[in-house]
Specification:
This protein is an alpha+beta fold. The protein contains four helices and two strands. 44% of the residues lie in helices and 31% in strands. The protein has a two-stranded antiparallel ribbon.
């Protein structure tokens, strides 16, 4: 089996996910005006500022130890990438 196939099986199993909070940068105008002509001038004059939004995200912990543990537990042969080294 390849490493991709084993990782897809690990995703289906769902035990190797780690929840974490990630800050995502977002560019927001400092000032806006309802008239388009003036708004373009204000954009040039005042510019943008960066706001960070905190979101909950899941990442998968795919280390060699976890892959070997998963393969031994499910009785799946180790990936070819590990055996060739």
């Amino acid at each position: 089996m390849t490493l991709q196939e084993i990782v897809s099986l690990m995703v289906e199993d769902g035990r190797y996910f780690v929840e974490q909070y990630v800050e995502i940068p977002k560019m927001v105008r400092v000032r806006t005006h309802k008239k388009r002509r003036i708004d373009k001038k204000w954009e040039k004059r005042y510019g943008y500022k960066t706001i960070y939004e905190t979101k909950k995200a899941k990442s998968m912990d795919v280390t060699i130890d976890n892959v070997v543990e998963f393969c031994l537990e499910k009785q799946i042969p180790l990936p070819n990438e590990f055996l060739n080294n």
